[in-house]
Amino acid sequence: MIVDTNALSAFADDSPEAITAMGKADRVTIPVVVIGEYRYGIAQSNRRHKYEEWLVGFLAACDTLDITMNTAPEYATMCLELRRAGTPIPSNDIWIAALCRQHDLPLLSRGRHFDHVKGLRRLAW
Length: 125
What we know:
Elements: E1 2-3, H1 5-12, H2 16-23, E2 29-31, H3 32-43, H4 48-60, E3 63-65, H5 71-85, H6 91-103, E4 107-108, E5 122-123
Parallel strand pairs: 1-4, 2-3, 4-5
């Protein structure tokens, strides 16, 4: 499973539903885009140090996914599909969705806009 930023945040805040959903996965992966978004969010938090410390430990137990040359065609195709359908989504989310399609993994997210992406299975909690 690939974890979106909102799922990572919920897990960090000990959401029982997010913990249960993530616990069902054989493999938990975090895109570098999500790590960037999360770090941006915690940089603005009064509890920044707590979350940074938590993140280091969490990432040690997960796989990270980088955007590669193999991700770029998925991204381009997806941008075109979403534009033609009139359902664009934020660029960072397209990168995350492209990684899902590239690696054939579901996405744990509350972002319903991901439901517009063909071939992506979104898991909600």
